[in-house]
Design goal:
Blueprint: E1 7-9, E2 16-18, E3 35-39, E4 45-49, E5 52-56, E6 61-65, E7 68-71, E8 76-79, H1 82-89, E9 94-95, H2 97-104, H3 107-143, H4 156-163
Antiparallel strand pairs: 1-2, 3-8, 3-9, 4-7, 5-6
This protein binds zinc ion.
Length: about 170
């Protein structure tokens, strides 16, 4: 994909733009959805923008925009700056999040992370099932005719049913 044609949408001003227009109309820097980059070298540092000169309006005065660099910490760097992302998206030494986990996290940390992900997933599942049960219940109440034999959901099903199939905690 041609990176120069890649478009970004600013979270501040809503403008859709592409390189090298990194500023909002008011002169502040565009801000995009943050993205995390990973490096095999722990405190990797790289330039994301070269020094450049801009001419100010009709005055003819020239201003120097200094070069910018970014600094990784423990092999990772998160940024919502589109110019940073533009440079890092083209950086061949970047590694995947999974590779980063292998390199930087101990087995114990990886297991804990996995556990947290599973727990969050389990909680989402319980929420989904409960809201589904609520809908079914509402439907049943709406449809219920006096004297009609409508099966009801026993309260126990809300928790025991939701948890079946969930991984057991060690
Ligand atoms: Zn903007």
């Amino acid at each position: 994909m041609d990176n120069n044609k890649k478009t970004y949408t600013c979270l501040n001003c809503g403008e859709t733009f592409s390189a090298p227009k990194w500023e909002c109309a008011d002169g502040r820097r565009h801000v995009v959805e943050a993205k995390t980059y990973y490096s095999a070298s722990s405190s990797w540092r790289t330039y994301v923008a070269e020094e450049r000169l801009i001419t100010l309006g009709d005055t003819g005065r020239v201003r120097v925009i200094p070069a910018r660099s970014v600094q990784f910490t423990r092999g990772s760097f998160t940024t919502g700056d589109p110019e940073d992302q533009f440079a890092l998206d083209q950086e061949p030494s970047m590694i995947s999040a999974d590779r980063w986990k292998e390199l930087y996290l101990s087995t114990d940390e990886r297991n804990k992370m996995k556990e947290r992900e599973l727990k969050a997933w389990e909680e989402r599942l319980v929420l989904q099932q409960n809201s589904l049960l609520d809908k079914v219940k509402q439907q049943q109440e709406a449809n219920a005719q006096p004297g009609a034999d409508v099966p009801t959901i026993p309260p126990a099903a809300r928790t025991s049913g939701a948890r079946s199939g969930a991984p057991r905690q060690a």
